[in-house]
Each structure stands twice: as structure tokens, then as C-alpha cells.
Amino acid sequence: MGRVAATRTLENWLRRVGFVYVAGTDEVGRGCLAGPVVAAAVVLHPDRHIPGLADSKAVPAEERTDLYGEITASAIAWSVAAADPTEIDRLNIHQASLRAMQRAVLALAPLPDIVLVDAFRVPELPMAQRGVLHGDRRCAAIAAASIVAKVTRDRQMIDLHGVDPRYGFDRHKGYATADHLDAMARFGYSDAHRRSFRPSTLFDTMD
């Protein structure tokens, strides 16, 4: 994926028409076999530009960590929330992701006047919201949220690796890599795995 710098064009326009606190929210971990889905919400400070904001998937890990520090130090507000594997299995990944984003937004202080969301509408928010197609590539607040969520989740997966190193969570962060699938075939599902996610390559070896 090519890196495209996210801009503050939409956020600046919304502030000009009267929205004071403009939040962006995004989640990471939807496609993983293990670990939580993690959402973040960020209200960037209009006078503190952070260069380099982009979709977290297009930003190298070391730079993501640096940007995480800049975002959390200079934002008006930021928060993270998660849905664990049990909730993902109970609700499905889409609904669990929406719940995580809802929690992240509602944990902001001050609460935003409007929320920019990467494509989806988040249910049961008490403020205005706007879906932005490819928002993590286009909108600085959503890109910032994607970076905060990604760094937070990666750290959680490294912690899970410390608890159970058999699966290599520190390397693949729960995604369906060949070595992760091999480990699942050898050891089965751990408490960190999503039981409702059944990669076809595992059916013959695990059933």
C-alpha cells in the first residue's frame, strides 16, 4: 500500500461551520485470528500540526511509535477501547468493532461535537457523525486514531506473547501468517484466539 498523507481539510471545514471538537475514530485487528479488536478516538489540536499522519498500515512500526507519542502528547483528547475474543465470538467481528469504537468515542473528555468514522456509522452515539470512505488515508484525525489503535494493539499482542510464547504473537500480532497457522495446528486454540474464526487450512488438522 502506497503511503498517502492524511489532511485536515475536512476537520478544518467542520470547525469553520461551528463544530469545536472534531474526533476521528478507527479500529485495528478485524482480520486477526487472535487477540482483541482495538479502537481509538482522537481529537487533534487545531494549532498543533503533526506531520506524517497516514493510515497506520502504511507507516513503518518505528515511525508509528514516534507518531503515537506525538499524538497522545499534543491531542486535545484521545482514548482507546477494545472488544476481546469472547465478545467478538458472541457478537461477530463487525458488531464488536463498532462497540469498541463507540466506547472509545464516549471515553473522550471533552466529548466531541462530531465524529469522523472510517466508512461505518457507529451506533448509539449522542453526537453527530460522518462516515468518510477511506478515511484513514484521507482524514488526519482518523489516521491518528488508526495509529494509536495499532500501537496499542501491537503492545497488547507482545504482552500476550509473554504469557504464551507458543504462537509467536510478537511477530504476527495475531494475523493468519503461515507460522501462526502452523502453531495453531500444533497447539490448538488458546484463550486469546477467536473461536468463531475458522481458517479453512485448519479444518483438516484441528477437527
What does this structure look like?
This protein has helices at residues 9-16, 61-74, 85-91, 93-106, 135-138, 140-163, 169-172, 178-187, 203-206; strands spanning 22-28, 37-43, 77-83, 114-118, 128-132. With 207 residues, it is α/β, with parallel strands linked by helices. The chain has a single domain (9-206), classed as Nucleotidyltransferase, domain 5 (2-Layer Sandwich). A hairpin with an 8-residue loop joins β1 (22-28) and β2 (37-43). α3 (85-91) crosses α4.
Quaternary state reads single chain
Q: Specify the number of helices.
A: 9
Shape: globular
Structural class: alpha/beta
Helix content: 40-55%
Total domain modules: 1
Sequence-ordered SSE layout with sheet pairings:
Blueprint: H1 9-16, E1 22-28, E2 37-43, H2 61-74, E3 77-83, H3 85-91, H4 93-106, E4 114-118, E5 128-132, H5 135-138, H6 140-163, H7 169-172, H8 178-187, H9 203-206
Parallel strand pairs: 1-4, 4-5
Antiparallel strand pairs: 1-2, 2-3
Helix pairs in contact: 2-6, 3-4
At a glance:
43% of the residues lie in helices and 15% in strands. With 207 residues, the protein is of the alpha/beta class. The protein has one domain: 2-Layer Sandwich (Nucleotidyltransferase, domain 5), CATH 3.30.420.10.
Identify the notable features of this structure and list them briefly.
single chain, 207 residues, alpha/beta, Nucleotidyltransferase, domain 5, 9 helices, 5 strands, disordered C terminus
